[in-house]
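Quick question, first post here. What does this chain look like in 3D?
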Amino acid sequence: MSQAAIFPVMYKEVRDYAELLDKVLIELKGGTGQPQDEERKRLAHFLTELASANTRSLATRMVSRLLRNEGRVTPQKLAAIGVKLNSPGVAAIDQTMISQLEELARALEQEQAVAMARI
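> Answer (accepted):
Ran it through. Tokens below.
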């Protein structure tokens, strides 16, 4: 795949994750999200993938690298949140975790801007 073709695909993938994160954050803040929710499961998978060295997703690797470079929230912390999001019996997430997810939302927004500039 050429570089010109990679960036639109990466932009779409990052945008999809950003939208998913926004939906789950709204549910978490409102106290309506449950571990069995499909969106929550998808977000949990994405968060755990951020800490994986073996992920196949270029967008996930780029977001992970961005997070490591900025140092405000690490992929490992987000992976731990992903595990909690997937855990039955964990309906509520504390404010620290929500703040870390909001930091991820800002990083995704920044990554979307970078990808869009390259399109």
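The mean pLDDT is 83.
The two ends are 14 Å apart (CA to CA).
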